[in-house]
């Protein structure tokens, strides 16, 4: 049984990861029940969550509880571990491990929950190292990478993004939060436009940074070169990847806020697109520098502009990176491949 706070139809990287994980288990003949954790405040709500979970476990005859969002869902897993001897496995994504460490109380319970888990599944080597740094045995942590949903390439393939003709398109797809580095791309546009006047930067997604980004574009005089699409329906995402020349997202770590992996880089690669990312968090595992894309220092606009211009000025390099990225996705980042890593955990 998977107990989680996020799952489709909710959108986002965690929901997408868990959906693929569950689908892969079911495809391998392992029955899985998904339970969205009921949350609230106060003792009564926690009692309700524990009882609801336990009743579901008994009803479905689940032998293992798999949880995402180590805090707060882990409290329920921990109680059922000791009161009902129900083993649990924790899936961690990066921020959920780093964020609690600034609070002594949360850090304590984070470590207790992880140390009492049967095993930990991390979405990248970067996240695994953060877990091991907390004292968890390395042998208990398995890396299962996010994988591209194959339906992404086929579902909605008829959708066409009506980009202005003659434009060279930079694309960023993701929630508008500071760590994604949208502002860094906007700051490079004057330098890029000086050599590529037809550049258009498309930002797909929404979030708390939108107003600040719009204001920055106005201040730099590049508003006409930035197109904010807001939240994009999933069925239209393939058309965006297909229309882009380069996918760019110069992610950076801000305190505990970090990109644990970066599935969007693989999605762009799946469409044969070269990618440019910030060398932070788990992004260096999503992008093989110089092979499937380019990595740049996350706070160096000059290096970012140079990487983008290098790809536009060297079409052979751009095509080679995109094609190798597509091959890598097909070879390594399929759920039927990644899911093989977890069978020893259930034994």
Secondary-structure map with pairings?
Elements: E1 2-4, H1 13-27, E2 34-36, H2 43-60, E3 65-68, H3 70-83, E4 88-92, H4 95-98, H5 104-115, E5 119-122, H6 125-133, E6 141-143, H7 151-154, E7 168-173, H8 182-195, E8 199-204, H9 210-219, E9 226-230, H10 237-243, E10 246-249, H11 263-270, E11 275-278, H12 283-286, E12 293-296, H13 301-313, H14 315-332, H15 335-338, H16 343-346
Parallel strand pairs: 1-2, 1-3, 3-4, 4-5, 5-6, 7-8, 7-10, 8-9, 10-11, 11-12
Helix pairs in contact: 2-3, 3-5, 8-13, 11-14
Task: Describe this entry's structure for a reader.
This protein is an alpha/beta fold. The protein has 2 domains: 2-144, Glycogen Phosphorylase B (Rossmann fold); 151-332, Glycogen Phosphorylase B (Rossmann fold). 46% of the residues lie in helices and 15% in strands. The protein is built from 16 helices and 12 strands. The strands form 2 sheets. It has a 6-stranded parallel β-sheet. The chain has a 6-stranded parallel β-sheet with strand order 9-8-7-10-11-12, sandwiched between helices. Helix 8 (182-195) links the parallel strand 7 (168-173) and strand 8 (199-204). Helix 2 (43-60) crosses helix 3 (70-83), helix 8 (182-195) packs across helix 13 and helix 11 (263-270) packs across helix 14 (315-332). The mean pLDDT is 93.
């Amino acid at each position: 049984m998977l107990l989680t706070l996020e799952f489709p139809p909710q959108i986002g990287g965690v929901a997408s990861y868990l959906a693929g994980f569950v689908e892969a288990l079911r495809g391998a003949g392992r029955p899985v029940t998904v339970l969205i954790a009921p949350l609230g405040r106060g003792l009564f709500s926690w009692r309700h969550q524990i009882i609801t979970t336990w009743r579901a476990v008994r009803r479905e005859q689940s032998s293992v509880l798999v949880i995402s969002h180590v805090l707060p869902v882990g409290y329920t897993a921990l109680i059922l571990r000791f009161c009902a001897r129900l083993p649990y496995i924790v899936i961690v994504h990066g921020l959920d491990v780093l964020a609690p460490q600034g609070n002594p109380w949360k850090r304590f319970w984070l470590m207790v929950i992880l140390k009492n888990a049967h095993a930990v599944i991390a979405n990248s080597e970067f996240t695994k190292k953060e877990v091991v740094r907390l004292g968890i045995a390395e042998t208990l942590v398995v890396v299962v990478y996010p994988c591209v949903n194959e339906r992404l390439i086929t579902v909605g393939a008829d959708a066409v993004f009506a980009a202005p003709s003659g434009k060279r398109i930079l694309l960023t797809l993701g929630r508008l939060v500071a760590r994604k580095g949208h502002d860094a791309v906007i700051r490079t546009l004057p330098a890029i436009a000086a050599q590529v006047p037809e550049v258009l930067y498309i930002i797909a997604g929404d979030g708390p940074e939108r107003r600040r980004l719009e204001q920055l574009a106005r201040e730099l005089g590049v508003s006409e070169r930035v197109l904010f699409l807001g939240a994009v329906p999933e069925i239209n995402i393939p058309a965006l990847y297909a229309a882009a020349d380069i996918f760019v997202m110069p992610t950076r770590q801000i305190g505990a806020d970090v990109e644990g992996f970066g599935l969007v880089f693989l999605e762009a690669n799946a469409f044969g697109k070269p990618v440019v990312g910030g060398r932070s968090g788990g992004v260096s595992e999503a992008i093989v520098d110089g092979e499937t894309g380019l990595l740049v220092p996350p706070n160096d606009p000059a290096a970012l502009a140079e990487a983008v211009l290098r790809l536009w000025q060297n079409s052979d390099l751009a095509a080679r990176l995109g094609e190798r990225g597509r091959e890598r996705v097909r070879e390594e980042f399929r759920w039927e491949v990644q899911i093989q890593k977890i069978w020893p955990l259930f034994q």
